[in-house]
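Hey, quick one: can you model this chain's 3D structure?
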Amino acid sequence: MLVLLHLFALFLLVTLGFYIFVANPRSRANQTFAAFIAFLALWTTKDLIFWNFPDAQIDAGWWAASSFIIALLMQYALVVFAWVFPENARTPRTRAAVLFAPGLVLIPAALFGFLWKDVGFPSGKFVIELAPLAYVFVAYVYFVFFFGAAILFQKYREYKGTQKSQQVGAILWGLGITGVLKTLANIVLPFLDAYEYLPFSSIFVLPGVLIYAYAISNFKLFSLQSALDQFRLFPIAYKIALSIASVAIISFLLFQIPIVWWAFQNGMNFEAWRKYLVFSLISALVPNLLLVLLVVRTISRPLQRITVAAVQVTRGGYGTEVDLRKSNDEIGLLAESFNDMSRKMASDIDSLKQMNEQLMRTDRLAAMGTLAAGVAHEVNNPLASISSLIQMMRSKTPVGDTGVIENLDLISTQISRITQVTHDLTDFARVRPAAKSPVDINQVIAASLRFASFDESFQKLRIETDLAEDLPSVYADSDQLQQVFLNLFLNARDAMPDGGEISVSTSQDDSDVMVAIADNGTGIDDLTAKKVFDPFFTTKPAGKGTGLGLAVCYGIVTAHGGRIEMESNAPAGTKFIVSLPWSAPPD
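Sure thing. Here's the predicted structure for all 587 residues.
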């Protein structure tokens, strides 16, 4: 019965210490708790060996020495914990050196047996006779214990009314319970020659340890929410620990027990030991290979895939994703985060490319605007002089000289074309400042359609409108927007010389009002689509356009903080989408 209690206590201590440490390995409080648990596990192991497998031929002094030393080390761990918890502060090295200095003398004294006169089972009953130095040792142990408790009590008062105060208060209760039980089992009862409860001293400390761990884990230890949290993120350390423990237990049950029974069924002789050692080594290969397989499957293979994906991203493969089975450990979280990062990186780079294209287009517009203004200025003045001379020559030409009059009319026509081009250049170079006010975009579209309907070619087209109701007002210049939409309508007309359909629709999202103008005309290929907003680029025949209309539209829309985009209108035609912010104007 006692051996089962010791094994249960040892298993619980190791599991508890591992759980708390892995929960936050960088926390000094968790590290110190793990150290405390390690010392307590040594204490339990010592008691398990000594009380369950006594050997009269072995001096019991090892048990007494280890008991004194481990008891002192546990108190050292308690004091360090009191210094660092709950702030995760550093250990004051000077104070620690002064407080722990007596251990440099007392621990060697315990190792060399100076703390007792006799210990063992002289008459079949355990007896220990302490030396005077042992009482000094015990007094020092209790001094360190109460010193740590005093530090925690001071912090309890300092953080009174907070979560930290509740944690420290719970730890004080745990220390109190542990201190009372250990004092009864290890000191009071043995002093009264009652050693019956001494083997259970390692069991008595468990209630205090549970309270201790419960407080460190913010009162979530063994709670349903804590279990769910661990299920959502099951650390690799837990998986490896469980795998090793499971393989060890299973291999022990499947291999070691049968091998021991088979090897020693005829007694413990040389041949039996030879059988046991040989087949134990052989049976150890299977679980070890299984552990290697588990480690490779759990860690190595996923990390290799993540590494390959990371290399592809560094080589420009933005958007590359790791193809891994979803898992609730650090590698699964890493793979998911990597995929999110890679997708975000690809999206950001696409956005940067679009922004770069917009900046380049804006720079080209600015440069071409400056050039256009200069060209228009230099051309207009000579054209005005030439036009005046033509008018004078025409007025002096005899009525019957039809050849000269026709030539003069032809020259006047070409001058008019040049004048129109320079007028377009002037409009492109000198877009007037927008006179913004709240505008109903549906009314602007209706006005633009009305103006376009005066064109005979436009009257041949079918117009389909789907204008959303209750659109928010757009803070814009209605005349400039009308110029944009009118230009888009006339471009759609030119794309359908044999007739067709223009569809106009409006909509809104969280930030913009969108206008979509689509035709079913000849369409624009992908290469041409990248240049449609460039100045002087046109797909129309010579003499039919200057290539400035869409450039002017682009400048007007971007000046309003909006966007103008072009896309294919499958199965045939082109669609332009104008997006304008509907946010309220500044005060």
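One thing worth noting: The mean pLDDT is 80.
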